[in-house]
């Protein structure tokens, strides 16, 4: 008995301890002499003693054995007052004399481990918040409670703005610190009955039970954004920290968990789309458009992962030499069922859903690969790539571009970055810094869609821009309206005084080209010369514009004639 690893405890009919072994002493913390003669109730909290005494009586009336692990888990009170989990097997040595024997096994380690495993399965290891699985249960439970009580509850879905950029730019550890901070701030702003979970990545949910009116939810939403949108100090400087929040209300919007979550998701994207750091309630009218967008996002993700996207290249022709001096890379997506989907449809979706960063990185990488391939083939052609505002804000954009250049061995001076005026103006100081860093790498910068934004001359002078592109909206009515013609002329003069080259975009007719040549435009791009074509077609287009055919820029008639001859018939669309 003394050698048994389990505690052994003998109790008489009256419930007095008759004998304990060494293992029982270790489990309970009592010495044998402190226990013998005592009521077995010593191992129980006072409140449980009477009930146990009744159970013991019943046991002695009809004693029966019980193997280890079959009964309920039990917690005994140790000498120091702490409770420890044990499993108990029961037997009897002498029914007539009435001595029961209990084998007591300390299972506190096992229970602790089980509790840990249970916690890990239901909680997010980083933040300790409920995880997606647990959140699903809690949401179902909230629905069940609200069904019974007839009360509404709100489901809030939150997504940190620009989290990916921070994670990519500062590394995983920084991303994790940010997530921990977000979870800490969320918890500090919520009440005891509210539940918060981390669904994964930078997505959090909050369930606000028993809401009386929508204003209550608005207040909480504003409070959460208030605490989240405080800067976070990392690596010695303040990091802008913000989130977008979507709200769906039970039962007003939906009665089942899946739909509620989908609606909160739609509302969240709506909030992100309308300026970030804001919240939006789900509304029916946003439904179908968001539905379509979400589907498009999914399809786009598949296309990106499965090589379903392509870059086409549209030549930019030097007016003075008639040479193709560069090409603009333009994304093309041909969906297996839906056919060709224009960038004007999918780029805004990519921007609204944050996918533009992955998409933009892919474009840069492909463009670098193409630059290297052309250079190796003896065709060192400059490639212009469009950049979206979110990419400009991406903290590691410059490093990302450097990596792509290095990966493919592409010359930086053959890469050109096009940013629109409004993108550069979204955060002028930040844009200025990023563009200067790019320029220092040897990359040239073009300001796209010039004339549509609101750049000030003073600001333009501070950007390392070497070219501006006149928006094609100005070219369309060029021949009809003297005002537009005057504006184009003014833009060219302005650019020239700043020492910038001017590229006209969307040139469709020789008449437009004639005017642009007269105004002093340096280069043009448009269907007149060629649409965007696959990379392998570019060499053919280059051959169609031999450099020794250069035309004098002021000789308009000659220019028209020469250009008309050079337009490849298969791509010529209109004059
Ligand atoms: N009517 C007319 N159109 C002409 C003519 N010449 C060129 N275009 C079109 O004008 C657009 C020029 O590109 P953008 O202003 O940068 O405008 C682009 C750009 O803002 C965006 N985009 C395309 N590819 C990318 C990309 O890789 N990244 C990003 N961020 N945006 C892209 O989508 C916009 C539309 O792209 P696309 O549909 O390829 O449309 C292209 C091009 O096909 C012409 O003579 N007449």
UniProtKB/TrEMBL annotation:
What positions does the domain EAL occupy? 293-546
> Catalyses which reaction?
3',3'-c-di-GMP + H2O = 5'-phosphoguanylyl(3'->5')guanosine + H(+)
**PROSITE patterns reported in the protein's UniProt record:** EAL, GGDEF, PAS
Enumerate the Gene Ontology biological process terms: cellular response to nitric oxide; regulation of DNA-templated transcription
Recorded hits in CDD domains, A to Z, give: EAL, GGDEF, PAS
Annotated GGDEF domain ranges read 151-284
Matching entries from SUPFAM superfamilies are given as: EAL domain-like, Nucleotide cyclase, PYP-like sensor domain (PAS domain)
Query: Which positions fall inside the PAS domain?
Result: 1-63
Under the heading PANTHER family, the entry gives: BIOFILM ARCHITECTURE MAINTENANCE PROTEIN MBAA, DIGUANYLATE CYCLASE DGCP
Q: What is this protein called?
A: PAS domain S-box-containing protein/diguanylate cyclase (GGDEF) domain-containing protein
């Amino acid at each position: 008995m003394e050698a048994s690893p389990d505690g052994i405890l003998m109790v008489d009919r009256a419930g007095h301890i008759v004998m304990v072994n060494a293992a029982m002493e270790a489990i309970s913390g009592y010495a044998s002499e402190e226990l013998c003669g005592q009521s077995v109730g010593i191992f129980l909290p006072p409140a449980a003693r009477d009930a146990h005494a009744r159970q013991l009586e019943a046991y002695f009336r009809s004693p029966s054995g019980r193997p280890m692990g079959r009964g309920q888990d039990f917690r005994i009170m140790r000498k120091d007052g702490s409770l420890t989990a044990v499993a108990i097997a029961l037997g009897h040595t002498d029914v007539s004399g009435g001595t029961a024997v209990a084998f007591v096994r300390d299972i506190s380690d096992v229970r602790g481990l089980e509790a840990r495993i249970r916690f890990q399965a239901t909680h997010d290891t980083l933040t300790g918040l409920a995880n997606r699985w647990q959140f699903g249960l809690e949401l179902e439970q909230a629905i069940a409670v609200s069904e019974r009580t007839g009360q509404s509850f709100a489901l809030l879905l939150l997504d940190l703005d620009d989290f990916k950029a921070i994670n990519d730019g500062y590394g995983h550890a920084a991303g994790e610190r940010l997530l921990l901070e977000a979870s800490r701030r969320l918890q500090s702003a919520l009440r005891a009955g509210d539940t918060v979970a981390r669904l994964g990545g930078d997505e959090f949910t909050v369930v606000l039970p028993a809401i009386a009116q929508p204003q209550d939810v608005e207040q909480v939403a504003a409070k959460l954004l208030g605490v989240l949108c405080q800067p976070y100090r990392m690596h010695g400087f303040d990091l802008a920290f913000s989130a977008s929040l979507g709200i769906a209300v039970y039962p007003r919007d939906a009665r089942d968990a899946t739909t509620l979550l989908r609606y909160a998701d739609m509302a969240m994207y709506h909030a992100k789309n309308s300026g970030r750091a804001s919240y939006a309630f789900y509304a029916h009218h946003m439904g179908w458009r968001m539905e379509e967008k979400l589907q498009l996002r999914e399809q786009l993700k598949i296309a990106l992962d499965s090589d379903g996207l392509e870059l086409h290249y549209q030549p930019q022709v030097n007016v003075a030499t008639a040479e193709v001096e560069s090409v603009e890379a333009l994304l093309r997506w041909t969906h297996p069922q839906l056919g060709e989907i224009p960038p004007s449809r999918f780029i805004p979706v990519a921007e609204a859903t944050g996918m533009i960063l992955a998409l933009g990185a892919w474009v840069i990488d492909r463009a670098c690969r193409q630059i290297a391939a052309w250079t190796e083939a003896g065709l060192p052609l400059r490639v212009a790539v469009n950049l979206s505002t979110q990419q400009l804000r991406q903290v590691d954009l410059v490093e990302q571009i450097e990596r792509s250049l290095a990966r493919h061995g592409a010359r930086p001076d053959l890469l050109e970055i096009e940013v629109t005026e409004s993108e550069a103006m979204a955060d002028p100081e930040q844009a200025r810094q990023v563009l200067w860093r790019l320029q220092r790498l040897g990359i040239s910068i073009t300001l796209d869609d010039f004339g549509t934004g609101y750049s000030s001359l003073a600001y333009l002078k501070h950007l390392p821009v070497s070219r501006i592109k006149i928006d094609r909206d100005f070219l369309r009515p060029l021949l009809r309206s003297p005002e537009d013609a005057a504006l184009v002329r003014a833009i060219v003069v302005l650019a020239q005084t700043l020492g910038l080259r001017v590229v006209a975009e969307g040139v469709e007719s020789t008449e437009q080209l004639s005017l642009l040549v007269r105004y002093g435009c340096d280069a043009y791009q448009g269907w007149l010369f060629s649409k965007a074509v696959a990379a392998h077609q570019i060499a053919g287009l280059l051959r169609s514009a031999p450099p020794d055919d250069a035309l004098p820029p002021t000789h308009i008639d000659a220019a028209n004639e020469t250009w008309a001859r050079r337009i490849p018939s298969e791509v010529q669309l209109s004059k």
